[in-house]
Design a protein that fits this description.
The protein is mainly alpha-helical and about 425 residues long. The chain folds into two domains: about 180 residues, MFS general substrate transporter like domains (Growth Hormone, Chain: A), CATH 1.20.1250.20; about 200 residues, Up-down Bundle (Growth Hormone, Chain: A), CATH 1.20.1250.20. It is about 85% helix and about 0% strand. The protein is built from 14 helices and no strands. Helix 6 packs across helix 7.
Length: about 425
């Protein structure tokens, strides 16, 4: 009887992971296609460099502003309802984009879509965090890896084909459909979680004071605060690399546009592969060593990327950076899930959703501003110093990691106890 119960639990976990990965892949595919189509549409509308920068930035601003409030709404109404609403509203906005072919209307629509994205991302994050204890920390990167496959690898390839075959109007109709499709089977994917589903808490009050109290969690919970800062730093490096490595490769090394862009593709491919493959090392090594290796890899990659006049180091640095960033995402996600067990998954998911966009804006805007004065490539050397210093900080991260009695069985391996 016990064996049958274990088998049923294992089958339930498999169904959840399979259904959730299909949902994440479809969701990421729509976002990836929309990103490229929007960039191409901005070029067709003859957007200036400043306007192109706004198109790239306003979606992150929307996510940053609403990540925390959406976490509260997910806790109040449940992730399924918020995911469906966010998908429907984003699809509606994308349908209207071709109606007014002006750059500033495109910027407005992109910002509005950014306000819808947290409803989808925080909902998915919350559900996956809730199940991490049962499916295992080795799969901590699978959600982000699957999402990135659709967003980074498959989506851009399909985007160009859609524009060539259907024009921009037709492409935006396809995008709207791809946003609605996950909303149709999201309830089924969420329901596969069984007893581990996140239950709505209707008594939760939504107000500015409640949102402000959410921010105080960062002040009072050391694990949450430090993990969020590491998430912010890693996203800053990823954003800076993704935006400026092409500029560096073309201007400083004489790469063609195609070869320069392949650096980003290489880093993204390594990042995705590592998200699926390196999670098993977390249970073997423990949090401290896993953090230290991740920090060391990013420091080494930053030195390689910051070294002038050696083109081969750009390729080496891209590979090592993708590996290090993936490892940090896996261990950070595990840490956030542990904190969520104590403070509430939706609350922690909303806070973690803020760290990524904040880091992205920090890396692209502040990094670009400093790079203007100190040199774009030299900024990687600053990153190397930062992450090399964090290697010794990993000891403190291990010490503040806590687990309740019910979590000891799963997390004992992670803590190396």
């Amino acid at each position: 009887m016990a064996e049958q119960s274990v088998a049923q639990a294992g089958l339930g976990q498999f169904r959840f992971v399979f259904g959730f990965i299909a949902l994440a892949l479809c969701a990421g595919l729509g976002i990836g296609i929309a990103k490229i189509v929007t960039s191409l549409y901005a070029v067709q509308l003859q957007a200036t460099e400043f306007e192109m920068g706004l198109v790239a930035a306003v979606q992150s601003l929307g996510i940053l502003f609403l990540g925390l409030p959406i976490g509260i709404l997910v806790q109040k109404y449940g992730p399924k309802k918020m995911f469906v609403i966010g998908s429907f509203l984003a699809a509606l906005v994308y349908l209207t984009v071709p109606f007014y072919p002006t750059v500033w209307y495109l910027i407005l629509c992109t910002f509005l879509v950014g306000l819808c994205m947290p409803m989808r991302f925080v909902s998915l994050n919350t559900v996956y965090m809730q199940h991490l204890k049962s499916i295992g920390a080795a799969k901590a990167g699978w959600f982000r890896g699957t999402h990135m496959m659709g967003f980074f690898l498959v989506g851009p390839l399909l985007a160009v084909s859609l524009v060539n075959g259907s024009g921009f109007s037709g492409a935006y109709w396809w995008i709207a459909g791809l946003f609605l499709l996950p909303a149709l089977f999201a309830p089924l994917a969420f329901a596969l979680g069984g007893s581990a589903q996140v239950q709505p808490q209707q008594h939760e009050v939504f107000s500015l004071s409640v949102i402000a109290r959410q921010l105080t969690l960062l002040k009072h919970d050391q694990t949450l605060r430090r993990t969020s800062l590491i998430e912010l730093a890693s996203n800053a490096v990823m954003a800076y690399y993704g935006f400026f490595i092409i500029v560096i490769a073309i201007k400083d090394f004489g790469f063609s546009e195609t070869i320069a862009a392949s650096l980003v593709t290489l880093q993204g491919a390594v990042f995705v592969v590592a998200l699926f493959s390196t999670g098993v090392l977390l249970a073997r090594w423990g949090i401290k060593r896993f953090y230290q290796v991740g920090f060391a890899l990013i420091a080494i990659a930053s030195v390689a990327l910051g070294t002038p006049k050696v083109p081969a180091l750009l390729w080496v640095g891209s590979v090592v950076l993708g590996l290090g960033l993936a490892m940090l995402h896996i261990v950070n996600f595990t840490m956030f899930a542990n904190v969520g067990e104590r403070l509430g998954m939706a609350k922690v998911s909303g806070l973690s959703a803020m760290a990524g966009p904040a880091g992205g804006l920090l890396g692209s805007i502040v990094g670009g501003w400093l790079g203007h004065y100190w040199g774009l490539q030299s900024m990687f050397l600053i990153s190397a110093v930062l992450f090399a210093g964090l290697i010794g900080f990993a000891q403190q991260l291990t010490q503040i990691f806590t687990a309740s009695a019910s979590e000891i069985e799963m997390y004992s391996e992670i803590e190396g106890q």
